[in-house]
Amino acid sequence: ALHIMNKLIFTLTLLVLVGPLLTISWAQQRSGKGMNKQMYTRGYNTETVETIGGEVVEITYNPSKKTDATMGVHMAVKTDTSTIAVHLGPIWYMVEQEPIKKGEVVIVTGSRITYNGAPALIAATVKRNERTLQLREANGYPVWRGWRTNRQVNQ
Predict the structure, then answer these.
(1) β 83-90/118-128 pair status
(2) Which candidate, 72, 76, 73, 74, places its Cα nearest to that of 56?
(3) CB 3.0 to 4.6 Å from 53: which of 2, 25, 102, 107, for a disulfide?
């Protein structure tokens, strides 16, 4: 009985903490206000697509300038020649995927951009252990657009 009570308390606490963020994000997405519709396609250039491979040395969560509800997940990948920042996607989408862990070897295909004066990659796919996480279509369009209503996962 104590185990069930602890689980219930944990679940309720999680809902109280995360619920408002999801509600705010959902309301902004539905209203179109406060969220740039091109937020994650902005900067994706099909002419600069390349593939890199290396080890994940860091995972970071970077808030949007507007609101924490649009927090993005990034990772740093150490290649043979450098360490490059890789932009993955919004936290609400990434938490539904198999987590990428520090120390994993990945192959990332995406659009090379300059972010804060340094080279970076906007990821379209992340391959690891024979599995591929699809984040964007070949044209850079995010797979999470409309995903909340459809709940279809690309595997």
Answers:
(1) parallel
(2) 76
(3) 107
Residue 105: count other Cβ atoms within 10 Å of its Cβ: 12
Give the whole-angstrom CA distance, residue 86 versus residue 110: 9
pTM of the complete model: 0.67
Please write the tens of the pLDDT for every residue from 8-56: 565 555 455 555 544 444 444 433 333 333 444 568 899 999 999 999 9
DSSP calls for 42-92: TT--GGGEEEEEEEEEEEEEE--SS-GGG-EEEEEEE-SS-EEEEEEEEHH
CA neighbours closer than 13 Å in the CB half-sphere of residue 141 = 5
Closest CA to 52 of 20, 22, 85: 85
Q: Which amino acid is at 3?
A: H
